[in-house]
Amino acid sequence: MTMVRQQPATQAGTPQPEPRRRRTVPRGVLNLVSVLLGIGIWWLLPTVGFHDIPAPPEVAGRAWELTVDGTLGGDVLASLLRVFIGFVLGVVAAVPVGFLMGWYGPIRGLVEPWVQFFRTIPPLAIIPLAIVLMGIGETPKIFVIFLASFLACVIATFQGVVNVDKTLINAARVLGAKDRTIFARVVVPASTPFILVGMRVGLGSSWATLVAAELIAAQQGLGYRMQNAQLYYDLPTIFVGLIAIGVLGLLMDRILLFAERHLTSWQERR
Amino acid sequence: MIVIDRVRKVFPLAGAEFVALGDVSLELADNEFVTIVGPSGCGKTTLMNILAGLETPSGGRALVDGTPVAGPGPERGVIFQQYALFPWLTVRKNVEFGLRTAGVPAARRREIAEHFIHLVGLDQFADALPKMLSGGMKQRVAIARAYAVNPSILLMDEPFGAVDALTRVRLQEQLLDTWSQERRTVVFVTHDVDEAVFLANRVVVMAARPGRIVEVIDVDLPYPRTEDIRLSPAFATLRNRVWGAVYHQETPA
Lengths: 270, 253
Ligand SMILES: Nc1ncnc2c1ncn2[C@@H]1O[C@H](COP(=O)(O)OP(=O)(O)O)[C@@H](O)[C@H]1O
Ligand SMILES: [Mg+2]
Fold this sequence. Notes:
heterodimer; A: mainly alpha; 12 helices; B: alpha/beta; six-stranded mixed β-sheet; four-stranded antiparallel β-sheet; 8 helices; 10 strands; globular; binds adenosine-5'-diphosphate
């Protein structure tokens, strides 16, 4: 057993050296510079002719007012709650359906045409129908969000199952595993990366759909607040809404990205 | 004992039939180390898959200890060229996989895994993920994993095909080392003539179209096989014989 000593332990885990960058400015610094530059340009816009655009201090002031009187908090909470319920329901429904589609040919044959069909319809286009059928309460909004996350996630899960390396399944079989064990201990872990990517896509799609749904019919929420502000030409509030939507969307994406990195750290990345 | 009795395998091919294996017969005694060499496409993998129970023959039968092969079984361990380690499991968990499937209690599992991880010299990597291992190390994990369920037969399909020449020589020595400590019947497919002769007590040479056995060559070199043996005239003579059988086949047009 001569090989043991020839493989120094340090060599194994160390990441490969990154290709040399020409400049040595860290990326975080560049990101910060970019953000500051963007805000600077925004600040200049009103002074060079775009008089309607509110300057950053005005927007910050409005954000403060809306925060203090509780409006912003209420809107954020209402929007997040809707997206959360719809998204979770969508994922919970999509994962088993996706697994069944990938594992059993007949189920795939039965379900796939509908999934493919509804995938071509933007969830927003369902809103008129949903409102007519479900009224203007929470149900139609949650339903379209559910649809958005379900469709993204079901396709990803299905792809994950279909793409499981056949040799891994054979390896499990020759080690004595039967279908049930192969499913639980090979197919599920092997498709996790796909499912997590599907969840991220689904969350992005849910968030976009939600805000649009609130523009159409809601009594509270970030979309509603902006729609309302539009009636009064209240540009600072619209800006507050836009920034809140962007920041929250980014935050949610980062949380899922973190979970994804963590849960799929076994993957060989290059 | 393995009996391959007029095994035939036919694949449908563009409306016609493609004979991947035409009436192949071979017998293997217990604890033999048999290597199979032949040009690519001569049906080596097909034959292995039939023995493993991953494919069924179109004709003839494969018997293991008198019982026809019907599906995979724990008495036959398989080692694939692409390693086929579960990338989300550590080395230890990979080695324990078959034991867990068989319902072996955790403490006993760990003990057995430890033994075979040690046997292939990977003690320090027991808790590492496959992505941290080199190709040669991955294949040693696969060997330990196959051994752990205590098969009487090991089927290895070009297991060292994807590693560099130097590592390959060491893996061969190490495999023989492991095999001498834990004797099993080994069927080892390769397209490397040197490897075939160095490992085997018998070399089976196959030819393509249809896939068939053209020659079986006894390797009467003693074990343990050392570097001296690898460099000996006797080895060279055998290697040349196998080489001739593989590369001077009359291929039907
Ligand atoms: N599932 C299959 N369908 C059709 N042809 C196949 C299939 N599997 C193998 N073959 C053909 O059978 C022949 C033998 O294949 P294989 O056993 O993989 O050869 P080897 O391992 O010796 O290279 C090849 O010509 C291959 O194309
Ligand atoms: Mg092959």
